[in-house]
What does this fold into?
Amino acid sequence: MKTIIRNASIVNEGKIIVADILIVNDRIEKIGKSINLTDTVSRKEISAEGLYLLPGVIDDQVHFREPGLTHKGNIYTESKAAIAGGITSFMDMPNTLPNALTQELLEEKYAIASKTSFANYSFFMGINQHNLEEALKTDNENVCGITDDGLYFNNDEGILANYPQFLESLFSRTNSLVALHSEDDSIIKKNTIHYRNIYGENIPPEIHPKIRSEEACLKATKRILEIAKKHKNRLHLFHISTLAEANLFDNRIPIRDKRITAEACVHHLWFSAKDYQKLGNHIKWNPAIKTLEDKNGLLAALLENRLDIIATDHAPHTIEEKIGTYFKSLSGGPLVQHALPAMLELVHQGKISLEKIVEKMSHHVAEIYRIKDRGYIREGYYADLVLVDLNNEWLVTPENILYKCVWSPFENNYFKSKIMKTFVNGSLVYDNGFVNESKNGKRLKFEKQR
It folds into this structure.
């Protein structure tokens, strides 16, 4: 099957050019000013006049909830929302039920995705202090990395950032990319006791960033960085939420050569502490959304290449799980359908360029994870592509939300930019509201050396 996209404004590798793209089966065969075919093979032609063609977004941090938590979401529903948002590949966390802490459980998730995911997929191997030997078996060419995100050692202890001796063992032995959540549990517990004594069970949502504070994030991040630098391991830090942390990262090293990388998430770039008054626990995330200075500082750090990529940390809960008192409301929220439109809104506001959005949501993700043949619009690469209309305003409503949980922190927001078409492996899987359910994504492949 051949497809030609005509007269697209292609945003790729720091430039915008108007050209045609020829897709043959699942890959880009040719990029040129005017592609003319002389053969008689049937083809589909798509006019992209006035539209921008971007490489598909690669989201390195989602919680699609399958298996075990599928009342919140599943790979089918959340990958459908992802392609509607221009995300063509995702990497899913291991905090499903059961947790993906064995190679067998990990492969069960891949098997589900092979039958139900509209987007390309990879799944992190979970790591805790009890399964080090199992995690070390992870195949770098077929698995994106190992992580502790969302996992717990037992009922009352937290993430690896709080176990420096275990991190020493892990970093001294693994050759996989290690991706970590970075907050200090002792500080969070102390702050929780303090504010519980003041407010009881009814802690206001705006206290969340004081409980999961800058101090808690900064102390844990410094601890992790010290150990990782000693071992020269391949470390990626998820969802950096403070300017103080962002300033710890080096911007003098080319992305391909960095041993330590970090990301900002959409919610930390869009919301700030002032939004708790209106949205309450709907914007309760871990780590917490913090000050306006932090929000603006994270964007500046992205522009300065201290932070390397933009992710979603898509973590759906039912609306019932988000309401109620502070301790009953769960942290996290759905984002994949609205992440790219939200970031494109920052383009309209003059805060970031279209080229930089593509770099941070596609190019750099491919480089950090060493993903094979994706993340760029290049001849020979997979045709993971998104056509965007930058001047097609729409309103986020329950009727057009595709998440299984059927709510969004962006509800009642207008976005100026609209995702018109999404291609995954050369197939048009999303077309202005219509989803082609006959096509599934592919398992992402990676270079062995990270």
About this structure: The chain has a mean pLDDT of 96. The first strand starts at residue 2 and ends at 12. DSSP finds 14 helices and 20 strands in the chain.
